[in-house]
């Protein structure tokens, strides 16, 4: 009897672990990836740095990985997570998987986007590619909403650094360009130390990776997302450190002011210190250690921590 109970317990444990295993989907059907150019010389790389950060580069097959909370905790809300990395790499570990698990702890389903990075070697019109992948990611989540037990009207996006640029582009360009659709629109957005502008306060590396070194004034304005906000832009939560040497704090400030101009609900938290690229790794970094609690309160204020 004891051995049977042991076997049953092991089976239940295995089943539970399998049920919690993240599911990964290709964003696009095979051989139907838009703007793709075949180039076998380019292969995806994943490297774990000494800082414990997993970095992914040279993405050719974009994916979406679903991290689902336990069913007894699930609120029905969901969020797509976009790691940063200057449009050169994806800081997939601490700005992707770690954040997904943080949302799961709050009952929110999280979907980590591994999008293609702009690359002339493997793409045509590379400036279109990250947004096309982000739009497709939102559409896929909504298409599978019933399967994953989520409410398609409670789906947001969070982006970090250049991922914040992509998240803010999704928030303001979901109805423009190839793949434009209301199904791609986030219901809420969280922007963490985001690249927003491609103007005078731009993170030059992100701008040049997406648009090249000779971008036209029209392209710069189009992807300066503080200029693209309107009354339909989703409610947004922003976090930035004033001593951020990589992405000037004005990126968040100007986006916040644009949101307020159009009466879009917005909440911004600025901290005197913290630098850049911290995500949840803020212990001992001063008052910025409180940003997750502030975000938790904001999510609660939107009703996203309650089952509906």
Automatic annotation (TrEMBL):
InterPro entries: AB_hydrolase_fold, BD-FAE-like_dom, GDXG_lipolytic_enzyme. Residues 1-19 form the signal peptide. Pfam families: BD-FAE. One of its GO terms (molecular function) is hydrolase activity. The keyword Signal applies. The keyword Hydrolase applies. Coiled coil: none annotated. Keywords: Hydrolase, Signal. It comes from the Bacteria. Residues 67-256 form the BD-FAE-like domain. This is Alpha/beta hydrolase. It comes from Larkinella bovis.
């Amino acid at each position: 009897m004891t051995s049977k109970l042991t076997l049953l317990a092991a089976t239940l444990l295995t089943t539970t672990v399998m049920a919690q295993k993240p599911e990964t989907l290709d964003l696009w059907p095979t051989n139907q990836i838009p703007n793709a150019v075949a180039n076998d010389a380019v292969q995806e790389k994943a490297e774990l740095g000494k800082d414990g950060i997993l970095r992914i580069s040279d993405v050719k097959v974009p994916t979406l990985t679903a991290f689902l909370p336990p069913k007894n905790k699930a609120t029905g809300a969901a969020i797509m997570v976009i790691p940063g990395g200057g449009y050169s790499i994806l800081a997939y570990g601490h700005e992707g998987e770690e954040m997904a698990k943080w949302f799961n702890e709050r009952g929110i389903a999280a979907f980590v986007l591994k999008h293609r990075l702009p690359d002339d070697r493997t793409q045509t019109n590379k400036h279109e590619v990250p947004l096309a992948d982000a739009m497709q990611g939102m559409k896929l989540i909504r298409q599978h909403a019933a399967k994953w037990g989520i409410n398609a009207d409670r789906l947001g996006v969070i982006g970090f650094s250049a991922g914040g640029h992509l998240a803010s582009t999704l928030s303001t360009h979901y109805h423009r360009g190839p793949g434009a659709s209301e199904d791609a629109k986030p219901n809420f957005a969280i922007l963490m130390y985001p690249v927003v502008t491609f103007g005078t306060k731009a993170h030059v590396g992100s701008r040049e990776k997406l648009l090249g070194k000779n971008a036209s004034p029209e392209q710069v304005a189009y992807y300066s997302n503080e200029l693209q906000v309107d009354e339909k832009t989703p409610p947004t939560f922003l976090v930035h450190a004033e001593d951020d040497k990589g992405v000037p704090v004005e990126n968040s400030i100007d986006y916040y002011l644009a949101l307020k101009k159009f009466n879009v609900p917005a909440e911004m938290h600025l901290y005197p210190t913290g630098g850049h690229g911290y995500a949840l790794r803020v212990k001992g970094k001063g008052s910025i250690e409180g940003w997750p609690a502030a975000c938790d309160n904001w999510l609660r204020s939107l009703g996203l921590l309650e089952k509906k």
